[in-house]
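Tutorial, part two.
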Amino acid sequence: MPRGYFITFEGLDGSGKTTQLRRLAAQLTASGQTVVTLRQPGSTALGDRLRAVLLDSRSESALGPISPLAEMALMFADRAQAIAEVIAPALDAGSIVLCDRFTDSSEAYQGAGRQLGSDRILAMHAAVCNNLQPDLTLLLLPPLEASLARARRRNHRTAQKDGADENRFERESSEFYARVHTAYRQIAAREPHRVVIVGDGVDDHSIDAIGQRIRTVVEERLAAR
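Running the prediction step on this input gives:
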């Protein structure tokens, strides 16, 4: 059976990547494709527990400060489990895998945001993830301030609705997020065939317009493989 196709969605929280992943999954499924979706951290029993530690802003009240290296290690523990339990089996079965965040997020957030450096992140990826690379990465990069404001509003609504609190990263400084934003652009420049920036430099940033751009890119890549 031919190997499946691995697509990741990247960007700051509030960039719209999760919405666009769900739209693409529905479109591909409607066209007859077998689609597997997941998010990182999360989507396995271990990953969901790690997500609660890594994203909940109350974690550090209960556990104490999480060091940048511990944070990186936990992110990769989640990723290794997701590869073994979800991603690799789905690709072996010929499915299209859509993943909300992958190692580019660690390079941007821990490598640049936490200032651990890209080399350490990429070495960790090679060691822990057997250097598994996405076939295509869709990078959503709306303006930094708008993206963060949207993420904080969303997380506030979620916390009020069901008590979930995933604001730990959103509490970081503007300087932290400026480093993350710059790192994403550097990754895209380094790997232009894999990473496609969606919505950057276009007039229409509506959900429908971005979704159509994503669909066009994906259809072209799937047809060419």
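The chain has a mean pLDDT of 90. In part three we will examine how such features are distributed along the chain.
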